[in-house]
């Protein structure tokens, strides 16, 4: 095997693959030659004595590495942790801007005292160069800036920071024009506009010196953004009093008490001292993490400049640009559901969850709901008929990646869609019910999740339970429990066995028709009275029931909406009433040998996810733990970077503790609640709910 010499100097970082012959994930190397098999012979950097001195590395495949320029390799080499190198690489906008930094550029760095602004003063070469193959590591000397726009008056020694310590690069146009430091200067003559999207998703490009025209163009683009209308959900930036630009998403718009003009409540990308958790002036406007909520006049907000190309329509994205996909190494081991304590840090944020692409929201929301935090379906997923089928392996890889990394790129989902057996799954909008049937029947090869028995004593299987009833049978805002009870009694259906997973489909058809304007979720679904041949207690006295009555269901004197079953004595007494003498109670199949005075155990299921639809777009709410506030909201297409041809969708997961606050109220209070006055996400769930996903209680599992 004779290698061919590679003439150009090429550096790389290993992004995936198991460690072999010296290389592992996060290692920095240089290509020496290429074999006839398409593998590369590389030198490895990062020794203990002198990290810049290369040593024999071995072979590495092209699919396991990411190309780097010399400058990028030197910056990454000063980061001692391989995981932090990869983490920075996962943010190509930021890494690209860091690579283009020059003297007197303004940055925000991680420091023991928090996130501090400062000016880049020098790019330092670290290490020694004993021979021509050695590399200097590169680090930044930063001079801190106080909150009054002053350089630190004490003039301490300049602090040294790696590229991984920089969390924000501040564009020059973000600083108010005319702002000067006390010594009469602001930046140098070579001051340039540095944005975090100056080379979005294109890390391999070389830094180009900025020109006066480039700065002027950035200012013109920024001014054009001021005319873009802002609304709840818009990604914006705000210049703070210290000249630092903060980024976030508008969660609320309105006029706070004591203020004039429209204000915006913004959830910031990271903690900022002095910010709240959604409270302002003693009133709560939305809920987020502590130190993330900023309230400012709407005139202070501008569209997020990091996505300038998407907003102006004159983007710098090219058709070759790709989504910034975090490196990932797949394993054969099944990853358990995300623990409650880890879910917020792993899942919440932008570029989290499953990335949408070409009408995939129905599939993204369904997979996220079923597999991100629930343990119920894990046993089912391990029992397909043929675990070596490509589609089964692809699904397992999606689930593992979601649970391990918190993000699944669109390419993985598109690969899964191509195996679903029908071309329309690749490009067209689908109903989650159709996908769920295909998923369990053809992909996981499982028996129906539900076994239903009708009055004719015939048994049938189903993967979802469709609510069928007349609108007049229910109140204006029903609960899921009331809908289930009424639908089962109306259709005379019972569950043959206790299901481990129950997916309840509301009486609506896509976005065109819904029977109820709002539906209240039932956190616990009691199906004791819906089980066939199972003991049930009398609604009146609690003894063993022998009759049930459909006509008593809406009786306003007997807790309307609750199933009514009676023992023989109470059945006769209740139907002696003149208003009930025309009822036709039916006999129950009472199990043999059950004592009439034995307490009946209750069989309940717990809500773990809700699928919602609005204007043909599906999203989901997921309960990721036992705490009442452990709710998150997922949208696979929350935002977009670039145009329809060359851009990509930005998925987002948001914490939604306010949903827990709302649903923790007593049922009587919920029935009287005004949904229009509920918080944004709570209102969205009540209005747009389409499927409620329940699992058997942990004790029963």
Automatic annotation (TrEMBL):
Domain of life: Eukaryota
Family: Belongs to the peptidase C19 family.
InterPro entries, alphabetized: CAP-Gly_dom_sf (IPR036859), CAP-Gly_domain (IPR000938), Papain-like_cys_pep_sf (IPR038765), Peptidase_C19_UCH (IPR001394), USP (IPR028889)
PROSITE patterns: CAP_GLY_2, USP_3
Disordered: annotated segments: 319-339
Primary enzyme class: hydrolase
A GO MF term: metal ion binding
Protein name from the UniProt record: ubiquitinyl hydrolase 1
Catalytic activity from the UniProt record: Thiol-dependent hydrolysis of ester, thioester, amide, peptide and isopeptide bonds formed by the C-terminal Gly of ubiquitin (a 76-residue protein attached to proteins as an intracellular targeting signal)
Listed transmembrane segments: none
Cellular compartments per GO CC: centrosome; perinuclear region of cytoplasm
USP domain boundaries: 352-666
Biological source species: Oreochromis niloticus (Nile tilapia)
Domain CAP-Gly: 254-297
Locations listed in the record: Cytoplasm, Cytoskeleton, Microtubule organizing center, Centrosome; Cytoplasm, Perinuclear region
EC id: 3.4.19.12
GO BP terms in the entry: cranial skeletal system development; protein deubiquitination; proteolysis
């Amino acid at each position: 095997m004779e290698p061919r010499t590679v003439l150009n100097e090429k550096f790389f970082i290993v992004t995936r693959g198991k460690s072999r012959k010296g290389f592992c994930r996060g290692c920095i190397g240089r290509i020496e030659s290429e074999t006839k098999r398409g593998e590369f012979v590389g030198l490895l950097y990062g020794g203990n004595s002198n990290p810049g001195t290369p040593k024999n590395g071995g072979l590495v495949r092209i699919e396991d590495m990411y190309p780097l320029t010399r400058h990028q390799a030197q910056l990454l080499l000063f980061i001692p942790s391989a995981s932090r190198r990869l983490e920075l690489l996962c943010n190509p906008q930021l890494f690209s801007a860091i690579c283009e930094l020059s003297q007197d550029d303004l940055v925000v760095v991680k420091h023991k005292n928090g996130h501090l602004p400062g000016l880049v003063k020098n790019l330092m070469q670290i290490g020694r160069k004993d021979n021509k193959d050695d590399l200097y590591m590169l680090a930044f000397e930063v001079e801190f800036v106080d909150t009054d726009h002053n350089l630190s008056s004490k003039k301490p020694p300049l602090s040294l920071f790696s590229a991984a310590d920089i969390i924000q690069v501040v564009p020059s146009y973000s600083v108010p024009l005319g702002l000067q430091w006390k010594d009469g200067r602001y930046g140098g003559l070579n001051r340039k506009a540095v944005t975090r999207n100056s080379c979005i998703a294109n890390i391999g490009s070389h830094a180009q010196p900025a020109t006066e025209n480039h700065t002027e163009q950035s200012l013109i683009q920024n001014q054009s953004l001021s005319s873009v209308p802002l609304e709840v959900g818009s990604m914006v930036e705000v210049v703070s009093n210290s000249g630092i630009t903060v980024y976030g998403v508008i969660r609320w718009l309105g006029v706070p008490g004591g203020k004039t003009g429209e204000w915006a409540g913004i959830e910031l990308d990271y903690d900022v001292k002095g910010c709240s958790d959604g409270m302002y002036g003693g009133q709560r406007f939305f809920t987020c993490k502590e130190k993330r909520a900023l309230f400012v006049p709407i005139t202070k907000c501008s569209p997020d400049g990091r996505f300038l190309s998407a907003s102006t329509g004159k983007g710098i994205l090219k058709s070759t640009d790709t989504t910034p996909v975090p490196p990932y190494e797949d394993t054969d081991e099944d990853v358990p559901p995300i623990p409650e304590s880890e879910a917020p840090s792993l899942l919440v944020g932008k570029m989290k969850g499953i990335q949408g692409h070409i009408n995939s929201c129905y599939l993204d929301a369904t997979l996220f709901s079923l597999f991100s935090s629930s343990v119920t379906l894990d046993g089912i997923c391990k029992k397909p008929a043929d675990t070596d089928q490509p589609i089964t392996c692809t699904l397992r890889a999606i689930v593992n990646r979601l649970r391990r990394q918190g993000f699944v790129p669109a390419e993985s989902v598109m690969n899964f869609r191509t195996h679903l057996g029908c071309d329309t799954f690749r490009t067209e909008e689908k109903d989650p019910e159709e996908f769920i049937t295909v998923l369990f029947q053809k992909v996981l090869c499982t028996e129906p999740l539900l076994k239903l028995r009708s009055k004719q004593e015939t048994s049938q299987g189903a993967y979802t339970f469709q609510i069928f009833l007349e609108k007049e049978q229910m109140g204006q805002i029903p609960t899921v429990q009331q809908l289930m009870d009424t639908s089962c009694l109306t259709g005379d259906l019972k569950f043959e066995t206790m299901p481990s997973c129950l997916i309840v489909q509301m009486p609506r058809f896509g976005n065109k028709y819904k029977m109820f304007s709002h539906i209240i979720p039932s956190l616990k679904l009691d199906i004791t009275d819906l089980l066939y041949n199972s003991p049930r207690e009398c609604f009146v006295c609690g003894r063993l029931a022998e009759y049930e009555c459909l006509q008593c269901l809406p009786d306003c004197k007997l807790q309307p909406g609750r199933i009514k079953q009676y023992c023989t004595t109470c059945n006769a007494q209740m139907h002696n009433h003149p208003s009930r003498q025309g009822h036709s109670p039916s006999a129950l199949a009472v199990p043999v040998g059950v004592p009439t005075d034995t307490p009946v155990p209750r069989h309940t299921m717990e809500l773990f996810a809700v699928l919602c639809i609005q204007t043909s777009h599906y999203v989901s709410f997921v309960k990721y733990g036992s705490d009442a506030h452990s709710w998150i909201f997922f949208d696979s297409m929350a935002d977009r970077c670039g145009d329809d041809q060359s851009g990509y969708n930005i998925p987002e997961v948001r914490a939604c503790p306010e949903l827990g606050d709302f649903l923790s109220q007593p049922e009587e209070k919920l029935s009287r609640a005004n949904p229009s006055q509920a918080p944004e996400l709570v209102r969205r769930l009540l209005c747009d709910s389409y499927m409620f996903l329940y699992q058997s209680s942990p004790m029963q599992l």
